[in-house]
Fold this protein.
Amino acid sequence: MKKLFNFFAAAVLLISLAACSNNPKEKYYKSIPDGFDAMCQRAIDEWKVPGMAVAVVKDGEVVFMKGYGNAVMGDSVTAPVPVTPQTQFVIASTSKAFTAGLLANVMDEYPEIKWDAPVINYLPDFKMYDPWVTKNFQVREIMSHHSGFNSYALDDLPPWGYDRDDLYKIYSVLQPTYSFRTKYAYNNSMYTIAAKIIEKYTGKSWDDALIERIFTPLEMKNSTTGNISFYTAENLAQGYRMRKAEDKDEIVVVPRTDKDDAFAWLSAVAPAGFVISTVEDMANWVKMHLNHGTYNGKEVISRKNHNMLWYPQTITGSDSTRLTNYAQGWTVEFGEQGRYIRHTGLAYGYTALVGMVPDMDLGFVFLTNNGSSSDPQSALGRDLIELYKGNKSDYFGEYFADYKEDLFSKDEPKAKEEVTPVAALANKAYVGNYTLEPFGTAKVYEKDGQLYFNLRKVDSPLKHKNGNVFTFFAKGSGTFDLTFTVKGNRAQSLTFDIVDPVGEFIRK
């Protein structure tokens, strides 16, 4: 009986979609399951999302497109600016799929580039910490998050003054925490390697190649990259973050003010997270994917290479109802709905979700200027899928309850670890220059009786922790332990961890 009901419900839905599509004025508001518009408004009202833009594609057509809330919230001086489908957002890690799609497009033109061939075939200077890994690291593994490094490897370094080329070189001394191909660990900086291949074969920057080969054929006229327009885009939403109010269990929204620090990081890992777009443009991106790489009759990515974009490479998790994998810039989930192709994004003051259910010919895009959690979009996406299936669900309520519980929870004070204090040596024992290529030279110096650590843009006092271990602070990254190796009464080397350990900086 339930199956029969779902059949009729689906039939009614399809008829309503067909009827509404003949009336452009009604198209965006009646070709969508009842209740979805209210769900989106709920995210603004309850979750305190500043602004959100939404697009839904069904059966090859945009059936819903709308802005909610404000791109700029305004204040006593400035009037709020509402979100529209043309509002630009940093789409954060949903950018990864663009780099993967761009690489697939380049591979169509240059078939000598193969997914299962070693990276060194195309980038002879590519070097990992382990020689065997260097020799066997394949193109398909650049973007599938099983390199052996911890999650977010090298993400701390851009605010220190290390650019994309520097990160590429530093992989040669970064020591992996896990064995190659054995563990899923999310990594942004690896996508810069894909960009290197793209740039070598196109002769253009990643930014320009993306515009020429993806944005232009997909008619994504308001899409660009943060490298080009982060400071100049006139229609870019202001980034915000959410936090707990100081005096009560309430969510408050505050603007992000660390734009320069954000740019330093995002620019260095741009192929992983620095596309700027609108839901109006992103709807075309979704249409192309649901049509196996073709848009308006033109092949942007061959079907063969498009299939590879969604081919599972790394298992990321499972439970009784779902199996999730990572492919090429996409998470591929297998569940009751069939394949759910998706990716979230969170960077600076923005979050995003792009999702598709190919068996339902359904895709959707949520872009927000809430830089604290992608859960609102994730919940809305799942609720939308269920609505199209004729089912009732409240993923939004479940996700929101979990979010509030985490945000408002009272952490138990942690017991202090008993450590026998060990005094540091005299300052002169540590003062000197320490070198590790390709990092360069770190300088430990004394000023007014205080030790300092200098490396590129980092210039921080060293705070004694215990023995020959100190801490330093890097603006935009946080606090790190620094350990000296001492022989006699003189430091011989120093090292620190950036998620994964690096080698020793040797004292000259």
Notes: Confidence is low (pLDDT under 50) at residues 1-30. The domain at 51-408 is CATH 3.40.710.10 (Beta-lactamase). Residues 2-20 form the longest helix (19 residues). The radius of gyration is 25 Å.
